[in-house]
Amino acid sequence: MHDSTPTPRGRESAHAPGGTEGEIVESHTLSNAKELGAFLRAHRERRSPRDVGLPDTGRRRTPGLRREEVAALSGVGLAWYTWLEQGRVIPSRKVLEAVARTLGLNAVSYRHVLALSGLLPPAPDGAGHDAVAAGVRALLDTWENSPAVLLDSRFDITAWNEAYAAVWSDPAGIPARRRNLMWCVAGSPAFRSTLLDWEPVARAVLAHFRGQTARLAATDPRTQEIYATLREDFPELAEWWECQGVGDLTARRVSVLLPRHGGLDLLFSAFRPVDDPEALVLVQAPAGPADRALVARLVRESRDRGAGVVCIGRDRSPGHPAPSAGPVAAKKERSSA
Known about the structure:
Number of strands: 7
Largest sheet: 5 strands, antiparallel
Radius of gyration: 23 Å
Structural class: alpha+beta
Distance between the termini: 62 Å
Number of helices: 14
Low-confidence stretches: 1-19, 25-29, 307-337
Strand order of the largest sheet: 4-3-7-6-5
Shape: elongated
């Protein structure tokens, strides 16, 4: 085991000789260091001694593995690993690999810690997304009976088709600050009151959203605004916004129960445009002929209603008042059910 006790003296190597563990940093030099430390700590607390071949000695003061156990199994010094969880050191890829193995991180979680450590290419600034959205919008429009939506790197909704607006209500009616898929899934009546098994689906979206936005959260104003809005609008979901879980939004079948039209089954899948690999296209294909016919009917009914749009707002259950959407959106607001 590498035994080193770092001292806070500039960018001194934390491992002698060669610096394989990483470097000590001032707190402002790695904006995501504390986020990384919190992520590792959460996974350490979920890992049991049995998972790593250690005897279970019964009751422990803290859940999961102890720091000294993770340090020993990963081949790093206890003091250095403590500083890693405190966000005070920059880890090397070699050490991250060892810690990831000890903590049993899957591929998605390992990619997440690499991103937080600055070991992946920097996230693009999204400057070219508008041009991508213009091209993708034409593609979405060809899927007449499959709801589809384009998200940017922050999960902001930037393009959608008629079928999406007909099934989930029109994103045009959502104030720009809240026109974000995570916000819609968290609080839209179109999702919360009609989507069966809403919570598992919402948590899957959250896991992907968190992984997508984690390295932006410390420096990007729009990402910070989204998290602030989620906390402000949905305080009952506070545990969600502090959750450390990440994951990919994999293909799945979801069932929707529409008040006036009955059941609708959709097959969710996602892919990324080559021109903007941080963007995401979500397509919801009808599962069968009856589902396809129902989406087509919803599109026709939406056209018949004319130009009015639906403002997605908070679930107006007792104790959860809707947030202010502004005078224009409030005037347009009506239920899509």
